[in-house]
Amino acid sequence: MRVGFIVGQFPSLSETFVVGQMAGLLRRGFTVDVVCNGISDYNFADRNQEPLATLLARTRDWWGAAARTRPTVGRLPARLRDKVSTALDLSSVARLNECDVVVAHFGHNGARAARLKKWKRLKPPIVTIFHGYDVGVPLRERGLSRYNDLFEHGTLNLTVNDYFRRVLVDAGAPQAKVAVHHMGIDLRNISYGWRSWRGVPLQLISVCRLAEKKGVEYALRALARVRADAPELDWHYTIIGDGPLRQKLEALASELDIAGRVSFLGSLAHKDVKQWLRRSHAFVLPSVTAKNGDVEGIPVALMEAMAAGLTVVSSNHSGIPELVEDQETGFLADEKDVGTLAHRLRFVAEHPEQCERIALQARKKVEAEFDMEALDNDFAEIVSRFAGARQVA
């Protein structure tokens, strides 16, 4: 069977889960085509190694040779931009119509495909996966109606958490067309290795894009509170990742007088990130809802940390409580609640033995519900079901 993926820029460092899902289908004998919104200069993995080599050989920009007009089209008034974009999208319809099913990552790409379906130009069934930004931002703007065509003409809408499922149903998506399908991680490549920090400095780590919704500001503020309340505790906080807030966060660490205990390492290759995780004891990600409504799905970085045996400290945000249960598989504080977050971090620092039990339960949680192999099997069954229905028709 042939599956056509519709994505944004491809490949993307922040969306390695997309490549992982494509690779899962390749391993199960599917043919995968990719239609994207620009082929990126991706330098965090070898483009000549699998699965990227196979995927990039079958990747096409939505607009083909007209892709160079994208900046000009982007400056057009909204209504005219939508009409021109949809007209240009037609250049990829023939390729997509050769597929048995179309999978769109992110709601806006699903809506894009649904417009072509509405015009009776796109033939395969559409499966759309919603991740976070595509739910939170339109929800804040009261603009979920932008998905009305998708709700009508799409075959299935998959959400990465149950919170998003409920939001889409409340917005008018038929319940029968919405289901939860988690993103997962490859547990074969992540060994469990809890290490006690009794008698040694507690090594805290965050791995994320330095953007508002990741909540790193509140981690810094909470750690400043920990230092003020318990100056005898020895800890160090390593932050891996880059983004628009990096300079502001570095300045905040200095302002809070904890810069000597905080290291900003910038973006690193995945193999280097794994090494840093092995050196660390606790993973910190106190995510928040951004001003524009952007939210997390269920962060893959949290899953990886839990699988590796780190104690996670996060927030009651979006789908995170579906992964992390406070004081059972990790620790949670309400969004922007610096006091509770500081209390959770201090508890972790002072009680490594109790954290060992929590870390073990966290690994079991990920194995039970977020194992990529099991989830890829489920996804392959979903795709096969809808592709088979099209072939019968």
TrEMBL record:
<protein>
    <submittedName>
        <fullName>Glycosyltransferase</fullName>
        <ecNumber>2.4.-.-</ecNumber>
    </submittedName>
</protein>
<dbReference type="Pfam" id="PF00534">
    <property type="entry name" value="Glycos_transf_1"/>
</dbReference>
<feature type="domain" description="Glycosyl transferase family 1">
    <location>
        <begin position="203"/>
        <end position="364"/>
    </location>
</feature>
<dbReference type="Pfam" id="PF13439">
    <property type="entry name" value="Glyco_transf_4"/>
</dbReference>
<keyword id="KW-0328">Glycosyltransferase</keyword>
<dbReference type="GO" id="GO:0016757">
    <property type="term" value="F:glycosyltransferase activity"/>
</dbReference>
<comment type="similarity">
    <text>Belongs to the glycosyltransferase group 1 family. Glycosyltransferase 4 subfamily.</text>
</comment>
<feature type="domain" description="Glycosyltransferase subfamily 4-like N-terminal">
    <location>
        <begin position="15"/>
        <end position="187"/>
    </location>
</feature>
<keyword id="KW-0808">Transferase</keyword>
<dbReference type="InterPro" id="IPR001296">
    <property type="entry name" value="Glyco_trans_1"/>
</dbReference>
<dbReference type="InterPro" id="IPR028098">
    <property type="entry name" value="Glyco_trans_4-like_N"/>
</dbReference>
